Amino acid sequence: MNAAQKQPTELIRIEQLNKQYKMGGEIVHALSDISLTINHGDLLAIIGPSGSGKSTLMNVIGCLDGPTTGSYWLDGEEVSRLRESRLAEIRNRKIGFIFQNFNLLNKLTALENVELPLIYRGVPAKQRKEDALAALAKVGLDSRSGHRPNELSGGQQQRVAIARALAGNPPILLADEPTGALDTKTGVEVMRLIKELNAQGHTIILITHDLSIAEQAGRVVRIQDGRISEEGGGRREHRASV
């Protein structure tokens, strides 16, 4: 039995999660009684309009923010009450972030940008370079490793951002509007790459307001006024507790 077969099916479990903020003396219920399970190998889209709570849910899933009440289990560990130092370690090792605006450093080459999370992880220089080149090769950009972001197209920059998220092989890729800053043709190419990575076994969570993007996922979770509901996706149907 190989390592992949030994992995538990469940990767994320969120139970009765609530997130509240104080704004102008009022309490805002950003997330209300969210329960959701995400399995290894899922391609899940969370779709909702501006103000629906999808960014708050993304921040909780990405360990950038914690819930007010409820629990969040990530890869077998209850993370909702951990200290920031431990959360930072989890973000670095278990979550690869893909941002709408790429968030690449212009002074660094593609290779150096991809190496960044590995530097924070303390990976030795030789291994770091090998891993970063392997990640760039996975997105078809190893030949552009010495180019800086301003020497790359928008689609190539997003591929570098995806390679950076892949570096270190985290179990989760969390993509926030990954095609939002791209033209239609390039967006199609990036989504094709994302689906290919999912087919290779990567668990991917897409945050989007675009129905055409969400419909390409295996699962679709809609969020409105901080509450979720789930419908079938493009490849297979699962149900979330709501």
- Radius of gyration, in angstroms, nearest whole number: 18 Å
Number of strands: 10
> Strand-and-helix sequence, N→C?
HEEEHEEHEHHHEHEHEE
CATH superfamily: P-loop containing nucleotide triphosphate hydrolases
% residues in beta strands: 25-35%
What's the overall average pLDDT, rounded? 90
Biggest sheet overview: 6 strands, mixed
Helix-strand category: alpha/beta
CATH-derived architecture: 3-Layer(aba) Sandwich
Reading side by side through the largest sheet, how are the strands ordered? Answer: 6-7-8-3-9-10
Level-1 CATH class name:
Alpha Beta
CATH topology, anyone? Rossmann fold
N-end to C-end Cα span: 35 Å
Large-scale geometry = globular
The count of domains is 1
Helix content: 25-40%
Features:
single chain; 242 residues; alpha/beta; Rossmann fold; 4-stranded antiparallel beta sheet; 8 helices; globular; disordered C terminus; AAA+_ATPase; ATP-binding; Putative ABC transport system ATP-binding protein; ABC_transpr_LolD-like; ATP hydrolysis activity
